[in-house]
Write a sequence for this structure.
């Protein structure tokens, strides 16, 4: 077999090593345009888990790499005169040049041919080659040459960064957040060998310009950074090597394979430097390719196996990198945070590290986090324990005069089980059991303000006395048997009305028994959906009156809180989104105009709702579709509702149009809550694939939301909050009939948690930093 590898970086060299080990008789040649010892940048970083992989696939190169590595266990966050150190991370750094030389030497040992200063720009010269590996880096000629086939999407990020080095020794992966007269600068720094450390400097475009960095050469830029960070550099110089300021390109390719050519490493996909995964991804691509070549019957099958098998892991890493880079791009959102909360946000920004994870690794740090959160709660008038504070999930919150005992919320979830809008015994059990289960706040499903406002025939309503009586029964039960508060969510389906029950075909139009629908514009949801009537002034006044009438009924029912549903493509959301609002009157066009009617409705409801009780609004922070609403729009929407008297913004996303392309994942909507909360400066509730109490604590402690709503976890476990309270040792209210069960689970959880933590600690392999420290300890005297 004949294999050509274009690009002599870590991806290309490691692929050559692994493929040659598999096929000793194969003719493998690596073509590199630069000299053998040329390299740009300074150090690379790997986790212990990545090194475990290297040890498995090629022990000789692994041993040489680890002999050259600098090890550290801590992450240090410097912010506003404080430093917080968090241990148990297991990172290793190595000179990029050293890594390349090690891989080159190992490749030669195996018989790989390495050709340097050899420029390849045409694959035609490899007509007799069985496999062509394109590992030619972030500016890949071949990816660009075949751009219509590979279809790369390049997202040039807004922040500016420059990669430099220093002689400053470091004993931790170090983040420095530096305030300057021009704005914030960030340094990501780590040691990679004795007397050498990598320094990546980052700032936003506006600060970059104000600092006068535009037009400076490498040395002048280094001098400016040395001035800014001189207090930490302690006299050590900054070193340069192609250290030009640039914007990071996030690259995703629709295809990785063309014939017998395959993209590897940065040529195929990039991951932002803030999670330190670029070289890791490149070398793990080589591992995946080698595995595929070993298992598949031929090259074509192997390349398909590689692409399909590897893509998910790459996309997961890229998603984590996306979340991380956005945090750094918007660091100004968190600049007024308490330093310990800020440090917690740094640690948990990419979702891989969580509250519970840090509790195991850095318990003292998490105790500081808990105390800082409790201080914020006390500043709001609550007499909470500061010495032994509860976890954030179990701290109280006040909205106007309503106090919730904890931050866990039962999300509004349509049950589609009402009869002509009347809640049934099913609803009594559904809401009652979840209130008894310990949640601080219960939301009703979207309750419709009129018969023709329903989504489906099974939706609840609040437009007549029978419905009001049924809801009153539920509210009275919740108040009599639990400490939970209950919020009424009111809405109008708009163009998504007259549809089937969820399990019969969600959002599909009824075949019989339907009703007329209305919307901001006459646009059907599906092509075969009913075309809604565009609302005129009379219809708008009528619907507003329906919302006010339902609000007054909600007052009579005794609800503690009221929410206006303005999300998910329903009636009021159809005014807000430009994808569903094509009006040319004063209710269309600009965002301010599109918001006009939803605000009219909200203000009328606010006037009818008791002043001492809070109101919230649910919004879709993004439509997940080109030309639709964005996170920045959500901030403007939240500010407008805040000025109108809203107390909480319930931040959801999407469901506006059928061709939306949401990016799912754990806590996938939380970044929008984060943006709205910390830019619009309003209290928020986040929702969306949040499944554990650990995630709830992580979100709250990092300042990304004030309440956390969970849907599906509550469907299968009405006592979700009670179980979490037992786990974290935080008391919650419980009816006397259930006290024996509560007492048992609280007793058992003390032992169960200790057993779990012991198992996690025992099962966690020691980091290489710990192993190295043990190996260098002097033997105890006999």
């Amino acid at each position: 077999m004949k294999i050509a590898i274009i690009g002599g970086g870590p991806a290309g060299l490691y692929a050559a090593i692994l493929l040659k080990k598999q096929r000793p008789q194969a003719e493998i040649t690596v073509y590199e345009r630069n000299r053998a010892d040329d390299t740009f940048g300074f150090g690379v970083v790997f986790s212990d888990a990545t090194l475990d992989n290297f040890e498995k696939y090629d022990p000789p190169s692994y041993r040489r790499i680890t002999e050259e590595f600098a090890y550290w266990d801590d992450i240090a966050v410097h912010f506003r005169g404080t430093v917080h150190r968090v241990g148990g991370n297991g990172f290793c750094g190595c000179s990029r040049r050293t890594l390349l030389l090690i891989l080159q030497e190992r490749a030669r040992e195996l018989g790989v041919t390495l050709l340097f200063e050899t420029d390849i720009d045409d694959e035609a010269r490899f007509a007799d080659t069985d496999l062509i590996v394109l590992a030619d880096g972030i500016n890949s000629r071949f990816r660009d040459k075949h751009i219509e086939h590979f279809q790369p999407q390049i997202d040039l990020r807004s922040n500016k960064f420059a990669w430099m080095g220093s002689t400053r020794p470091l004993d931790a992966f170090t983040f420095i957040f530096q305030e300057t007269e021009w704005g914030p600068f960030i340094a990501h720094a780590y040691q990679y060998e004795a007397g050498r450390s990598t320094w990546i400097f980052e700032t936003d475009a506006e600060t970059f310009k104000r600092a006068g960095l535009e037009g400076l050469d490498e040395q002048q830029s280094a001098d400016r950074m040395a001035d800014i960070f001189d207090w930490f550099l302690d006299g050590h110089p900054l070193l340069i090597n192609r250290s030009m300021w640039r914007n990071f390109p996030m690259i995703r390719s629709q295809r990785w394979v063309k014939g017998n050519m395959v993209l590897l490493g940065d040529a195929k996909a990039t991951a932002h430097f803030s999670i330190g995964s670029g070289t890791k991804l490149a070398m793990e691509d080589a591992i995946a390719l080698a595995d595929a070549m070993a298992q598949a019957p031929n090259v074509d099958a192997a390349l398909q196996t590689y692409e399909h098998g590897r893509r998910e892991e790459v996309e997961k890493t890229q998603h984590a990198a996306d979340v991380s880079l956005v945090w750094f791009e918007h660091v100004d959102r968190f600049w007024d945070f308490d330093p310990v909360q800020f440090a917690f946000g740094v640690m948990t920004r990419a979702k891989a590290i969580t509250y519970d994870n840090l509790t195991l690794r850095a318990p003292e740090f998490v105790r500081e986090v808990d105390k800082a959160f409790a201080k914020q709660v006390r500043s709001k008038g609550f007499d909470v324990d500061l010495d032994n504070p509860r976890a954030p999930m179990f701290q109280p919150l006040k909205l106007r005069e309503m106090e919730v005992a904890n931050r866990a919320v039962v999300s509004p979830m349509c049950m589609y089980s009402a009869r002509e809008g009347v809640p049934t015994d099913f609803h009594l059990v559904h809401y009652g059991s979840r209130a008894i289960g310990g949640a601080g706040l219960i939301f009703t499903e979207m309750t419709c303000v009129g018969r023709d406002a329903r989504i489906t025939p099974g939706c609840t309503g609040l437009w007549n006395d029978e419905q009001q009586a049924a809801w009153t029964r539920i509210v009275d039960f919740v108040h009599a048997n639990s400490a939970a508060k209950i919020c009424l969510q009111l809405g109008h389906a708009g163009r998504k009305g007259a549809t089937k029950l969820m399990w019969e075909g969600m959002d599909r139009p009824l075949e019989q028994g339907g009703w007329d629908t209305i919307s901001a514009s006459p646009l059907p949801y599906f092509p075969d959906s009913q075309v809604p009537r565009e609302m005129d002034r009379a219809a708008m006044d009528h619907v507003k009156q329906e919302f006010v009438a339902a609000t007054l009924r909600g007052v009579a029912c005794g609800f503690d809180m009221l929410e206006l549903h303005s999300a998910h493509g329903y009636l009021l959301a159809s005014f807000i989104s430009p994808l569903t609002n094509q009006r040319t009157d004063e209710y269309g066009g600009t965002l301010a105009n599109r918001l006009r009617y939803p605000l009219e409705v909200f203000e009328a409801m606010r006037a009818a709702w008791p002043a001492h009780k809070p109101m919230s609004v649910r919004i879709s922070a993004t439509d997940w579709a080109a030309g639709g609403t964005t996170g920045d729009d959500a901030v403007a929407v939240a500010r407008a509702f805040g000025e109108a008297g809203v107390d909480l913004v319930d931040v959801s996303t999407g469901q506006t149009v059928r061709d939306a392309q949401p990016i799912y994942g754990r806590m996938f909507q939380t970044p929008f809550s984060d943006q709205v909360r910390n830019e619009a400066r309003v209290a928020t509730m986040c929702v969306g694939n949040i499944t554990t109490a650990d995630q709830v604590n992580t979100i709250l402690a990092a300042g990304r939301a004030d309440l956390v709503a969970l849907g599906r976890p509550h469907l299968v476990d009405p006592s979700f909050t009670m179980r979490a309270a037992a786990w974290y040792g935080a008391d919650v209210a419980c009816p006397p009939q259930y006290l024996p069960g509560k007492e048992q689970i609280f007793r058992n959880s003390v032992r169960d948690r200790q057993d779990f933590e012991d198992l996690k600690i025992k099962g966690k392999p020691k980091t290489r930093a710990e192993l190295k420290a043990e190996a260098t300890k002097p033997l105890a005297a006999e």
